[in-house]
Design a protein that fits this description.
By secondary structure, the chain is mainly α. It contains nine helices and no strands. The protein is globular, with a radius of gyration of 20 Å. This is Heparan-alpha-glucosaminide N-acetyltransferase catalytic domain-containing protein.
Length: 249
Protein backbone atom coordinates (compact mmCIF):
# COMPACT_ATOMS: atom_id res chain seq x y z
CA UNK A 1 0.00 0.00 0.00
CA UNK A 2 1.34 3.41 -0.95
CA UNK A 3 1.75 5.66 2.11
CA UNK A 4 -0.43 8.79 2.15
CA UNK A 5 2.48 10.98 3.17
CA UNK A 6 6.01 10.28 2.03
CA UNK A 7 8.88 10.10 4.47
CA UNK A 8 10.60 13.01 2.72
CA UNK A 9 7.49 15.17 3.13
CA UNK A 10 7.27 14.39 6.86
CA UNK A 11 10.98 15.11 7.27
CA UNK A 12 10.57 18.41 5.43
CA UNK A 13 7.68 19.48 7.68
CA UNK A 14 9.50 18.43 10.85
CA UNK A 15 12.58 20.35 9.77
CA UNK A 16 10.57 23.48 9.02
CA UNK A 17 8.65 23.25 12.29
CA UNK A 18 11.36 22.39 14.75
CA UNK A 19 14.86 23.44 13.76
CA UNK A 20 15.96 26.16 16.16
CA UNK A 21 12.29 26.65 17.14
CA UNK A 22 10.17 25.50 20.03
CA UNK A 23 6.92 25.19 18.12
CA UNK A 24 4.55 25.67 21.06
CA UNK A 25 6.10 29.07 21.81
CA UNK A 26 5.41 30.15 18.22
CA UNK A 27 1.88 28.80 18.52
CA UNK A 28 1.10 30.75 21.71
CA UNK A 29 2.68 33.84 20.16
CA UNK A 30 0.31 33.33 17.23
CA UNK A 31 -2.65 33.11 19.62
CA UNK A 32 -1.52 36.34 21.30
CA UNK A 33 -1.24 38.05 17.91
CA UNK A 34 -4.73 36.89 16.93
CA UNK A 35 -6.16 38.28 20.19
CA UNK A 36 -4.33 41.56 19.65
CA UNK A 37 -5.58 41.97 16.08
CA UNK A 38 -9.13 41.25 17.31
CA UNK A 39 -8.78 43.89 20.01
CA UNK A 40 -7.44 46.51 17.59
CA UNK A 41 -10.23 45.78 15.10
CA UNK A 42 -12.84 46.43 17.80
CA UNK A 43 -10.89 49.47 19.03
CA UNK A 44 -10.82 50.95 15.52
CA UNK A 45 -14.54 50.34 15.06
CA UNK A 46 -15.25 52.19 18.30
CA UNK A 47 -12.78 55.06 17.82
CA UNK A 48 -13.05 55.79 14.11
CA UNK A 49 -16.54 54.53 13.22
CA UNK A 50 -18.24 55.22 16.56
CA UNK A 51 -19.70 51.79 17.08
CA UNK A 52 -20.98 51.35 20.66
CA UNK A 53 -18.11 49.14 21.80
CA UNK A 54 -16.55 49.76 25.22
CA UNK A 55 -12.92 48.72 24.91
CA UNK A 56 -11.95 50.11 28.33
CA UNK A 57 -13.66 47.36 30.31
CA UNK A 58 -15.23 43.96 29.97
CA UNK A 59 -14.40 41.28 27.42
CA UNK A 60 -12.84 43.61 24.84
CA UNK A 61 -10.53 45.19 27.43
CA UNK A 62 -9.39 41.81 28.76
CA UNK A 63 -8.84 40.53 25.24
CA UNK A 64 -6.29 43.30 24.71
CA UNK A 65 -4.65 42.90 28.11
CA UNK A 66 -4.65 39.12 27.75
CA UNK A 67 -2.85 39.42 24.42
CA UNK A 68 -0.24 41.77 25.90
CA UNK A 69 0.29 39.56 28.97
CA UNK A 70 0.77 36.49 26.78
CA UNK A 71 3.22 38.38 24.53
CA UNK A 72 5.26 39.47 27.56
CA UNK A 73 5.32 36.00 29.14
CA UNK A 74 6.43 34.47 25.83
CA UNK A 75 9.12 37.13 25.41
CA UNK A 76 10.44 36.22 28.86
CA UNK A 77 10.44 32.52 28.03
CA UNK A 78 12.09 33.17 24.66
CA UNK A 79 14.91 35.12 26.29
CA UNK A 80 16.47 31.74 27.11
CA UNK A 81 16.49 30.71 23.44
CA UNK A 82 17.88 33.90 21.90
CA UNK A 83 21.62 34.28 21.37
CA UNK A 84 21.34 37.92 20.31
CA UNK A 85 19.19 39.51 23.00
CA UNK A 86 20.84 42.92 22.79
CA UNK A 87 20.56 43.20 18.99
CA UNK A 88 16.95 41.99 18.94
CA UNK A 89 16.05 44.22 21.88
CA UNK A 90 17.48 47.29 20.16
CA UNK A 91 15.63 46.38 16.94
CA UNK A 92 12.27 46.06 18.72
CA UNK A 93 12.91 49.23 20.72
CA UNK A 94 13.70 51.20 17.55
CA UNK A 95 10.51 49.98 15.91
CA UNK A 96 8.66 51.14 19.00
CA UNK A 97 10.08 54.64 18.60
CA UNK A 98 9.23 54.64 14.87
CA UNK A 99 5.61 53.76 15.70
CA UNK A 100 5.61 56.57 18.30
CA UNK A 101 6.73 59.09 15.66
CA UNK A 102 4.43 57.82 12.87
CA UNK A 103 1.40 57.68 15.15
CA UNK A 104 2.08 61.19 16.46
CA UNK A 105 2.24 62.55 12.91
CA UNK A 106 -0.65 60.56 11.41
CA UNK A 107 -2.97 60.76 14.42
CA UNK A 108 -2.14 63.85 16.48
CA UNK A 109 -3.09 63.36 20.11
CA UNK A 110 -2.86 59.56 19.89
CA UNK A 111 0.41 59.33 21.77
CA UNK A 112 2.12 55.98 22.24
CA UNK A 113 4.58 56.54 25.08
CA UNK A 114 6.39 53.40 26.17
CA UNK A 115 4.01 51.10 24.36
CA UNK A 116 4.33 47.34 24.10
CA UNK A 117 7.23 47.36 21.60
CA UNK A 118 9.26 49.87 23.61
CA UNK A 119 8.61 47.81 26.71
CA UNK A 120 9.56 44.51 25.07
CA UNK A 121 12.71 45.97 23.52
CA UNK A 122 13.82 47.39 26.87
CA UNK A 123 13.04 44.11 28.65
CA UNK A 124 15.06 42.12 26.11
CA UNK A 125 18.02 44.43 26.68
CA UNK A 126 17.69 44.04 30.47
CA UNK A 127 17.16 40.25 30.36
CA UNK A 128 20.88 39.25 30.46
CA UNK A 129 21.22 40.99 33.84
CA UNK A 130 18.77 38.47 35.33
CA UNK A 131 19.75 35.39 33.34
CA UNK A 132 21.82 33.90 36.17
CA UNK A 133 18.98 33.93 38.71
CA UNK A 134 17.21 30.66 39.56
CA UNK A 135 13.50 30.28 38.89
CA UNK A 136 12.36 30.91 42.50
CA UNK A 137 14.32 34.17 42.62
CA UNK A 138 12.90 35.30 39.27
CA UNK A 139 9.40 34.46 40.49
CA UNK A 140 9.76 36.37 43.76
CA UNK A 141 11.42 39.35 42.10
CA UNK A 142 8.68 39.41 39.47
CA UNK A 143 6.02 39.44 42.19
CA UNK A 144 7.78 42.30 44.01
CA UNK A 145 7.93 44.34 40.80
CA UNK A 146 4.22 43.71 40.21
CA UNK A 147 3.42 44.88 43.74
CA UNK A 148 5.67 47.92 43.31
CA UNK A 149 3.79 48.72 40.09
CA UNK A 150 0.47 48.64 41.90
CA UNK A 151 1.87 51.17 44.37
CA UNK A 152 3.49 53.51 41.83
CA UNK A 153 0.25 53.45 39.84
CA UNK A 154 -1.40 55.36 42.69
CA UNK A 155 1.26 58.10 42.75
CA UNK A 156 1.16 61.45 40.98
CA UNK A 157 4.55 62.57 39.69
CA UNK A 158 5.53 66.19 38.87
CA UNK A 159 6.78 65.22 35.37
CA UNK A 160 6.69 62.40 32.81
CA UNK A 161 10.43 61.81 32.49
CA UNK A 162 10.04 58.51 34.34
CA UNK A 163 7.01 57.34 32.35
CA UNK A 164 9.05 54.31 31.23
CA UNK A 165 9.22 53.28 34.89
CA UNK A 166 5.56 53.95 35.67
CA UNK A 167 5.85 57.37 37.33
CA UNK A 168 3.73 59.95 35.51
CA UNK A 169 1.83 63.19 35.96
CA UNK A 170 -1.89 63.19 36.62
CA UNK A 171 -2.64 64.34 33.05
CA UNK A 172 -0.44 61.68 31.42
CA UNK A 173 -2.00 59.94 28.41
CA UNK A 174 -0.78 57.16 26.17
CA UNK A 175 -2.89 54.99 23.86
CA UNK A 176 -0.57 52.05 24.52
CA UNK A 177 1.32 52.01 27.82
CA UNK A 178 3.37 49.23 29.43
CA UNK A 179 5.83 50.67 31.97
CA UNK A 180 8.51 48.53 33.60
CA UNK A 181 6.57 48.75 36.86
CA UNK A 182 4.60 46.47 36.96
CA UNK A 183 5.01 44.75 33.57
CA UNK A 184 8.66 43.76 33.89
CA UNK A 185 7.46 41.47 36.67
CA UNK A 186 5.45 39.51 34.09
CA UNK A 187 8.54 39.32 31.86
CA UNK A 188 10.55 37.88 34.78
CA UNK A 189 7.83 35.31 35.36
CA UNK A 190 8.24 34.34 31.73
CA UNK A 191 11.98 33.95 32.33
CA UNK A 192 11.21 31.75 35.33
CA UNK A 193 8.96 29.57 33.15
CA UNK A 194 11.67 29.36 30.50
CA UNK A 195 14.31 28.29 33.02
CA UNK A 196 11.95 25.72 34.59
CA UNK A 197 10.43 24.10 31.51
CA UNK A 198 13.03 24.68 28.78
CA UNK A 199 16.48 24.06 30.29
CA UNK A 200 17.44 22.06 27.18
CA UNK A 201 15.82 24.62 24.82
CA UNK A 202 13.75 21.87 23.20
CA UNK A 203 10.03 21.49 22.63
CA UNK A 204 8.03 19.83 25.40
CA UNK A 205 5.88 18.16 22.72
CA UNK A 206 8.30 17.07 19.97
CA UNK A 207 5.94 14.43 18.54
CA UNK A 208 2.70 16.41 18.58
CA UNK A 209 0.72 16.43 15.30
CA UNK A 210 -0.56 19.95 16.01
CA UNK A 211 2.17 21.75 13.99
CA UNK A 212 0.92 19.85 10.91
CA UNK A 213 -2.77 20.64 11.44
CA UNK A 214 -4.09 23.51 9.27
CA UNK A 215 -5.05 25.57 12.35
CA UNK A 216 -1.71 24.82 13.99
CA UNK A 217 0.21 25.80 10.84
CA UNK A 218 -1.74 29.07 10.63
CA UNK A 219 -0.97 29.99 14.23
CA UNK A 220 2.68 29.01 13.80
CA UNK A 221 2.92 31.27 10.75
CA UNK A 222 1.51 34.19 12.77
CA UNK A 223 3.86 33.46 15.66
CA UNK A 224 6.96 33.25 13.49
CA UNK A 225 6.18 36.56 11.78
CA UNK A 226 4.71 38.36 14.79
CA UNK A 227 6.82 41.52 14.58
CA UNK A 228 6.15 42.06 10.87
CA UNK A 229 2.43 41.43 11.30
CA UNK A 230 2.31 43.72 14.33
CA UNK A 231 3.91 46.54 12.35
CA UNK A 232 1.49 46.32 9.40
CA UNK A 233 -1.76 45.10 10.91
CA UNK A 234 -3.19 48.46 11.99
CA UNK A 235 -2.80 50.18 8.59
CA UNK A 236 -4.27 47.07 6.94
CA UNK A 237 -7.24 47.00 9.34
CA UNK A 238 -7.91 50.72 8.84
CA UNK A 239 -7.70 50.38 5.05
CA UNK A 240 -10.08 47.40 5.01
CA UNK A 241 -12.53 49.16 7.32
CA UNK A 242 -12.42 52.27 5.14
CA UNK A 243 -13.15 50.25 2.00
CA UNK A 244 -15.91 48.29 3.74
CA UNK A 245 -17.77 51.33 5.05
CA UNK A 246 -17.25 53.09 1.73
CA UNK A 247 -18.89 50.14 -0.04
CA UNK A 248 -21.90 49.94 2.30
CA UNK A 249 -22.72 53.67 2.23
Amino acid sequence: MKPSVSASTVKKHIKAASINRVWEIDLFRGVALLLMVTFHLLYDLAEFYHLPLDYQKGLIYYTGKGAATLFILIAGISSFFSTSKLRRGIKVLLWGFIIYIVTGVALPGSNIIFGILQFLGTSMILAPLFMGLPSPALTVLGALILLAGRYTGTLTWPHNWLAWLGLVREDFFSVDYYPLLPWFGVFLWGMALGRTFYPSKRSLFPHSPLPFHPLGRSLLFLGRHSLTIYLVHQPVILLLLYLFFLAVK
